Automatic annotation (TrEMBL):
Major site of localization recorded for this protein: cytoplasm
Keyword check for Oxidoreductase: yes
Family per similarity comment: Belongs to the DszC flavin monooxygenase family.
Record's protein name: Dibenzothiophene monooxygenase
UniProt cross-references to Pfam families, sorted A to Z: Acyl-CoA_dh_2, Acyl-CoA_dh_M, Acyl-CoA_dh_N
GO CC terms in record: cytoplasm
Classification of source organism: Bacteria, Bacillati, Bacillota, Bacilli, Bacillales
Localization per record: Cytoplasm
PANTHER family recorded: ACYL-COA DEHYDROGENASE (PTHR43884), ISOVALERYL-COA DEHYDROGENASE, MITOCHONDRIAL-RELATED (PTHR43884:SF12)
Location of the Acyl-CoA oxidase/dehydrogenase middle domain: 122-223
Domain Acyl-CoA dehydrogenase/oxidase N-terminal: 6-98
């Protein structure tokens, strides 16, 4: 195992570290106004990062998933909302370009849209009734109806980050009248920042953290998608998108939250080594309770980072498989727990002075709040990791809740 980055990967990581410093200067304003960081997306385009998840043979950066995670972790330390939303562009392009059933001509068209035309894309999987605890809740209920020359879409998608800034949306819809709940069609939907007939964006995103991701609800009422923007069809959505595409379906998000955790640790370390209480000659960093908290945070986050690097390296080295999914699901669980613990310890260690609205830690802690919640949440991740660690078949596990009569319980994994 070798987690060292190549010179080329290091170059892009260093650029992202510089961008993070710039993004940080606007992060507080975008958070307060819950406004999209449009200028950050444009800078990322100018720097060539619309191709960060695209292999070199299609014209992209070709830095692999290990290179991607190292880059997005840097961006997250400057503006977590920018990292979390731009991850959706990487998710869309990366998922499509690695999928074995997407035709080569379609892959090249997607790459050209991003690289030559500078089109921003987002991924939209969640729906209003989705649950980060229940994988089967992610089977699409958005309906695709066959019409002459393509399909029309009917229904809603929720938590659609960056949708108002995007030119295209990568999503899955259920074919009309198909009795299999996992039957799905992948589409690249021209959305033109929401200015398309049949698309309504509901501004519901007024949240505790990640406010600038603008993860609003999108309603599709007959929007037309031509045949040439069909990506592929599947009869097993959960296996196809979540298990076989674990790096993009949740691995990228895990790296974002790990970056936030490292940002919190860096802030707390700097804050406490420079803060001196009245009547004392040493900084508060020398206090034994502070030393222990920083030590715990550093230890947990380093373990989480090594798990993330291992999962990314394994994916780049061996490709997509159930084993790869297992590595990512363990990393997701560890990161969720570590970031939650880091947020709590940093709050206690740094005290009330660090929680003012004009201090970055306050925003980072709010942004980190969803680290254990982001799908699959830590309970669901631990459940899947435990089943696979014991060599059990998740499809044979009893359903956690009684299914509605009209639905069949889908297999989570082969």
């Amino acid at each position: 195992m070798d987690y060292r980055l190549t010179e080329e990967q290091e170059k892009y990581v260093n650029i992202c570290a510089e961008l993070a410093e710039d993004f940080a200067t606007r992060a507080e304003q975008h958070d307060r106004e819950r406004s999209a960081p449009e200028e950050n997306y444009e800078i990322l385009r100018q720097k060539g990062f619309y191709g960060i998840a695209i292999p070199k043979e299609y014209g992209g950066l070709g830095i692999g998933f290990l290179g991607y995670t190292a880059c997005i972790m840097q961006i997250a330390q400057g503006c977590a909302a920018t990292a979390n939303s731009f991850n959706m562009h990487a998710n869309a392009t990366g998922s499509i370009l690695q999928h074995p059933k997407v035709p080569e001509s379609v892959k090249q068209r997607v790459a050209d849209l991003a690289l030559r035309e500078g089109k921003l894309m987002c991924t939209s999987v969640s729906e209003p009734t989705s649950s980060s605890l229940l994988a089967s809740a992610y089977t699409p209920s958005l309906e695709a109806r066959r019409v002459n020359g393509g399909h029309t879409l009917h229904g809603k998608k929720a938590f659609c980050s960056m949708v108002e800034s995007s030119d295209y949306v990568y999503l899955y819809a259920h074919p009309e009248h198909d009795p299999n709940p996992q039957a799905s069609i992948g589409f690249l939907v021209p959305i033109n920042k929401g200015n398309v007939e049949g698309v309504t964006i509901h501004d519901v995103w007024d949240t505790h953290g990640m406010r600038a991701t603008r993860s609003n609800t999108v309603e599709y009422d007959g929007v037309f998608v031509p045949d040439d923007l069909i990506l592929h069809e599947t009869d097993e959505f959960l296996n196809d998108f979540i298990v076989r595409g674990a790096n993009w379906s949740f691995g990228g998000f895990a790296a974002v939250y790990l970056g936030i955790g490292l940002g919190i640790l860096n802030f707390a370390s700097d804050f406490l080594t420079n803060r001196v209480a009245k009547g004392y000659a040493q900084s508060q960093g020398y206090h034994p309770d502070i030393r222990r908290r920083i030590g715990d945070m550093a230890s947990e986050l380093e373990a989480a980072e090594l798990q993330m690097k291992h999962a990314a390296w394994y994916c780049d080295t061996y490709g997509l498989s159930v084993d790869t999914f297992h590595h990512f699901i363990k990393a997701k669980n560890t990161i969720g727990q570590a970031v939650a613990n880091t947020s709590r310890s940093a709050t206690i260690a740094c005290g009330a002075h660090s929680l003012m609205k004009n201090v970055p830690l306050e925003r980072m802690i709010r942004d980190a709040a969803t680290a254990p919640i982001m799908p699959p949440n830590v309970d669901a991740a631990a459940d899947q990791a435990g089943l696979l660690a014991m060599g059990l078949n998740p499809a044979e596990a009893l359903p956690p809740l009684r299914a509605a009569e009209k639905l069949t319980t889908p297999e989570v994994m082969e």
